Amino acid sequence: MKKLLATFLALTMLLSTAACSNGGEPSSSAGGNEESSQSVETRDINGLTLPISAEKQEISVLMVYDSQIVEDPNEIAGVKAMEEATNVHVNWMTYTETEMLEKFQQLLATGEYFDVMFPGGTSTYPGGYEQGIEDGVLVDMAENIEKYMPNYLALLKSSEDAMKQATYDDGKMHSVRVIKGNDEGVDGGGAFMGPAYRADILAEMGADVPETVEDLHQLLIQCRDNGMTAPMTLESDGGTSLSWAWGVNTDWASKYWQYDYSTDTVLLAPFAPGWDDWLDTMRDWYAEGLIDKNFTAGSAAISGDYSNFENDQTLFLSFWFNFLMGKELYTQGYVSNDDLDLQPLGGIVLNKGDDPVKCSGNACIQQEIYVTTQAKDKIDIISKWLDYQYTQEGINYRYYGIENESYVVDETGNITFTDAILKNPDGISVSDALGKYAMRTYMGFQSETAEISVQVATSSDGAIMQIKAGEVWASPEETISIPVGVQLNQEENEYVNSNMTDIITLMQERMVKYILGTDTTSHDEFRETLKSHNIDEITQCYQDACDRFNAR
Asked: Which residues contact 465 (CB under 8 A, 6 or more apart)?
């Protein structure tokens, strides 16, 4: 991160003059202590002057937080240090992620707002941030970002992807966004899901890791002939990461949309050139006994049925999760099979020499941070407080706690936890011990380096496998994913939502029934059925959104 901040310094020097001009003075509208300001010692972090105000200021923040160790975030050592550095006291309102799903919408409905609202990734403002501005609920942060947030701007300007993803179609940055990265800079990080195989079974077979579709086909035949009943899995809708080898996206989470970067064209999977061959191959493999007969029940992580892992019945998993890689199914008690070893595949290709394909993008920009109009009289204070979340100092307080108490930094800049965390004298876990020092929230700069450090400290083997799997799945350079940051406007969103449900149902029924052999209609007939359900018009909505994104 020190390297990162050094790089940003050149960018922030241009912004620092405006930021410093009023950064150390109290806000006349910020509802704090009304006593006359006194001379205070100030310091600068890349254009952000600390303390933010000479007089104590107060703001309110809604956020997802759940701790059995420290109920009030203001009792966390790192949060106390952040208040001392900024001279801003935060009145927190916190809910668990599950509670927030209901509470956030209730708060919006009743008009009970907080200055800053960060409900996590599962709760969003209806219609998006721009709709919130139009409704008079959310603040347009475009001018405030330019005026008060030099560290945030420097991070964005260090990455073309980040800048493009954080900008709206009109060329402005209406909201502050979570930025994802590591100690090398802004980066979307590894993938969460991807194909996996049982390395222990493959080693017992004396076989190499498959590189092509035919390599895998022959391995699956060998597995079947050796008595395995489910050599390969599919998702409950018939989708599989193997379809990427044909340049086809069958991931239900992305609703089967994909993008051709050579022509800048959006298309639904059945209109991709490789769709027919992929689906025919899955039907043939199912008929050959190579695919789990019960695939419609869903993956084990969804159905809870781990018998194929327990009994060594499956070699290739079409989609799997990075947090369950390696021996995690055994160590977490899902199976008693201690030989189990799940390893990631970087993408099987159709023909030897082809470039592997993925269906994910470099998502540098994450959730929006909602600043409400309740905060308009202290927007300078709030903007600067948010900017502090993107500084190295703020990151360290949020993730690591207090230097020389919960962590130490060596001469190369590497951070390690102290015995107060790793060998807590009270005998509490690493996670609980760290909870007294660090809030560990990703509102601001989401540091993959810091998150990994915590994961490795709490469960080294599993954390290392998560990192490895994410890197392997993200390694192919070619992707068929729609560009990260593409946004439908309100009219497009309403049209898509009113028509897409039928399309999804048709897709899922087609894949399952065709693979099972019960649907014998041609691929062309299915495409005509999709067209009768307005797929051309829905596709145009996505195409227009992509065109606007590409024009940013």
From this structure: 322, 325, 326, 328
| Helix or strand run (H / E) with residue 266 | strand 265-268
Q: Which amino acid is at 212?
A: T
What is the DSSP track for 437-476?
T-----SSEEEHHHHHHHHHHH-HHHHHHHHHHHHHHH--
- Contact yes or no for 345/202 (Cβ under 8 A): no
**DSSP letter for each residue of 119-178:** --TT---TT-HHHHHHTTSB---HHHHHHH-HHHHHHHHT-HHHHHHHS-TTS---SEEE
CB-based contact 215:400 (threshold 8 Å) = no
Determine if the pTM surpasses 0.85: no
Most confident of 29-33, 34-38, 166-170, 328-332: 166-170
What is the Cα–Cα distance from 244 to 250, expressed in whole angstroms?
A: 8
* CA–centroid distance for 155 within its chain: 18
Q: What pLDDT is stored for residue 5 in this prediction?
A: 42
Residues 245-258: tens digit of each pLDDT: 999 999 988 999 99
Map residue 198 onto helix, strand or coil.
Answer: strand
Cross-strand partners of 358: 479
Check residue 97 and report its DSSP letter.
Answer: H
The single-letter DSSP state of residue 349 is: B
Among candidate residues 402, 443, 384, 502, the one with its CA nearest the CA of residue 44: 384
440 pLDDT band, cuts 50/70/90, is: confident
Are 52 and 86 in contact, with CB atoms under 8 Å apart? yes
pLDDT of residue 461: 58
Nearest to 202 by CA among 225, 227, 219: 219
